[in-house]
């Protein structure tokens, strides 16, 4: 599987409604996973809120989104990240190293509770990035 580049939108508690709206607009397959199903109930987190949502459309668009967890500021207009994802560990780690150099790392690139390697950083130009490396399928 080739690495993918797509937008990742953040919401202030209404990710489910927003992602369902985009499904009505673009069609396709929507998968939604809550904080409760992907890691239990951490203090201050509503287990029904969306930890990760992904819409894959017939036109080939992929749109991801989630509710901000407690403690992360929500600011309309800056509620996005660019997401790099795929199975090519070496390629995605190389991107991570370059993007995070001289930037700010919010979540170190490391194994996460859902099983993938994931990290979040803001590059030296202020663009927020997410990198997710999944296990090869097959």
TrEMBL record:
Pfam families: Glyoxalase. SUPFAM superfamilies: Glyoxalase/Bleomycin resistance protein/Dihydroxybiphenyl dioxygenase (SSF54593). Residues 6-131 form the Glyoxalase/fosfomycin resistance/dioxygenase domain. InterPro entries: Glyas_Bleomycin-R_OHBP_Dase, Glyas_Fos-R_dOase_dom, PhnB-like. This is VOC family protein. It comes from Streptomyces solicavernae.
């Amino acid at each position: 599987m080739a690495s993918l580049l797509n937008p990742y939108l953040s919401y202030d508690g209404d990710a489910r409604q927003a992602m369902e709206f985009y499904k009505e607009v673009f069609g396709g397959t929507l998968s939604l996973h809550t904080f409760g199903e992907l890691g239990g109930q951490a203090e201050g987190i509503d287990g029904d809120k969306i930890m990760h949502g992904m819409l894959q459309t017939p036109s080939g668009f992929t749109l991801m989104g989630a509710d901000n967890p407690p403690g992360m500021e929500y600011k309309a207009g800056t509620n996005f990240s660019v997401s790099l994802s795929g199975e090519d560990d070496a390629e995605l780690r190389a991107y991570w190293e370059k993007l995070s150099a001289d930037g700010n790392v919010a979540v170190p690139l490391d194994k996460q509770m859902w099983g993938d390697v994931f990290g979040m950083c803001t590059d030296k130009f202020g663009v927020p990035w997410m990198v997710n490396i999944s296990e090869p399928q097959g």
